[in-house]
Amino acid sequence: MGSASGVRWSAAGGATISPPRSGHTAAVDAQGTVWLFGGYAEDGERRVTNDVWKLDGESWERVVLEGGGPGPRLCSASCIVGSRFLLFAGWDPQETGTGGVILDDVWALDLENLAWEKLGTVPRGPVSRHVAVATPRGVVLHTFRCLESVLVFDGNEWTEQPTAGEAPSSRGLHSAALVGDEVVVFGGADKAGDMRADAWGLDTRTWTWRRLAGDSDGPTPRAGSCASSYGTTFLVCCGAERGATGGLVPRSDAWALDVQTGKWTLLIDDPTALRPRNAATLSGPLRHRKSDDDTLVFALHGGWHPFVETFDDTHFLEI
């Protein structure tokens, strides 16, 4: 299978983030600037970081912050609400062999004053490998514990919101995005490592789940994919699947799911101009690029080819 007409990856031409990283988190603001936090950095040795970067145009710039803030982590979740970058929990591996610490702290970065503020902790205890999606009804946090309810954060307080309908099975390393009034959740892996390729929608008006697509209708089962959305479409890229003889096989394909019809469309198959990877971020659409036509542009950064290479490149997906 090839690529859909007019869809392509293009490499960014400006300054990149150093060192290379995976497992970071990123979100785009209303002006189309991408803000990125933390992750597993690799510059000769692997280490976790807590630095902040922003992408405005083609180049990344490190953000200099005053005062304290969240500690190093990966597998956290973030979103932007108004002028605040919200960061939820994650994992600090600490010393090799210790297992590290799963975190429960919540932070807000004021994007105007460039200062962090701690907002408390996530209910239900420490969590990582989860997703956070900003909606008109608050930030929805979906974790492996969300079988009968989800967590909703209004910027100050938490609500444990009961849900109706059949819910996605318990999972982590899934991806998610808002499409209309629905939080769409895709893929991931359970605690045993079994991967999924199903897609689900949570209507935030009624807090009711519905299955959008099954495991065999589109992308292969995978974890560590990245997602965004446009119009009535959920967009998912990359991730890693189980190999035929074990191990993780990274992907570089891109898929679009029409949430109204439940139909998947392959936008770009791999191999492509983008090297296969998982644990990258996808942000957009960006409003400051390709503004002279109808092209939608999304920024993908970093990621990891498991046990082979960590990436520092940025690519734009043009649709």
From TrEMBL:
This is Galactose oxidase. The keyword Ion transport does not apply. It comes from the Eukaryota. It comes from Chrysophaeum taylorii. Signal peptide: none annotated. Transmembrane segments: none annotated. PANTHER family: ACYL-COA-BINDING DOMAIN-CONTAINING PROTEIN 5, FIBRONECTIN TYPE-III DOMAIN-CONTAINING PROTEIN. Keywords: Kelch repeat, Repeat. InterPro entries: Kelch-typ_b-propeller. Residues 1-24 are annotated as: Disordered. The keyword Repeat applies.
